[in-house]
Write the structure tokens for this entry.
Amino acid sequence: MHKLARLSAQERQQMIDDFVDGVFADVGPENPQAPGAGIARRMRQLPAELPDDPTPEQVNAWVELAELIADPAFQQRARTMAVAGPRTGEQPGQQPGEQTLDYRAVLEHAGQALADGIAPGSPEGRSVLDRLVPAAARAETLHQLETFTDARVERYWQLLAVLNGQPPFPPAVPAFEWLIAALRAASKP
């Protein structure tokens, strides 16, 4: 842990670059039109160096990040997302002229349903689902959410926020996982 925390800024950045280069081969900056180019560009973001006197949270975040990017399962999941990722200017699953899922509405409605203990397959859950996803778009929405919803990837971004001295953001994945469960329940005969 001490060794990881004391790596130079260049060594830390090299760890991130090696992760991104391995996971995003053929979908990174060298191929800006590739589906995952934007994701690869954002995943390279890391502060140039830890402060001279990093907080315990920053040291812990760096150690957790280093462990996360070394995990082959995480690397494979990130690769799957990158390959399926949106092209520049598009949202996941968006067709030209198509409206995308409203992220804030999911957090508001699915998040509230989760907090209230509403079962995704219940009539109340169906009502929430009806507000969020039109019936005709459910199969594609489910596919996109299953592809792009992952707590470990969200954790990656949370750790980068800590390293950059930004305030923590609340997890969004639980609301999206609730929506996935509601979509699955609605698709059963």
